[in-house]
User: Fold this.
Amino acid sequence: MKQKRLLLLGMIGLVTLLGAGLALVSLLARETETEPETTIALTDYAPADITAIQYTRDGDTVDLALVSETVEATDASTGEATTEEESRWVLADRPEETVDQTLVNSMTTALGTLTATRDLGENESLARFGLDEPVLTVQATVNGTDQRYYFGDTNEVTGDVYLMVEGKTSLYTVNYTSLAVFRYSADELIQVITAEAKPEE
Assistant:
């Protein structure tokens, strides 16, 4: 009789333990569920609306301008000549140089789709976030109006970058990519055209 009672008590204890374990697992699962990421749009224009970009990093300033040119082309089959407008990015002080358009397009895309991962609200301690002396300052000219962005330090935990937008009081965090696309100096933006090697005779 005593053995049956002990067995019954042991089974009750085991069921209780299993129930507590299940409750704990369920609680941990709920806590580790990731909430859908929310993003905050920081620009209200499209990449194609940008006509000039100026950015300063490590004391160096790069000025880019979008220029339009009339290009004449001849149809190979008909011989008919046509003209069309083409736009391309140039260095404002070195317009004769050929700039890598892909690199500049990545900048316009980053600006035209700039979103914050967090809105930290108004903060007066800008030095804590590297915004008293920004790592990067970007000015985009859109429809004749200049939009300025100030990038500060990178958060060591999340990898996000602190950002202030001129005209807004909030401090934001943005993805590091938004800063990384502006890492090029003027010389690094120049497209290197390699001549094709001639076959040996």
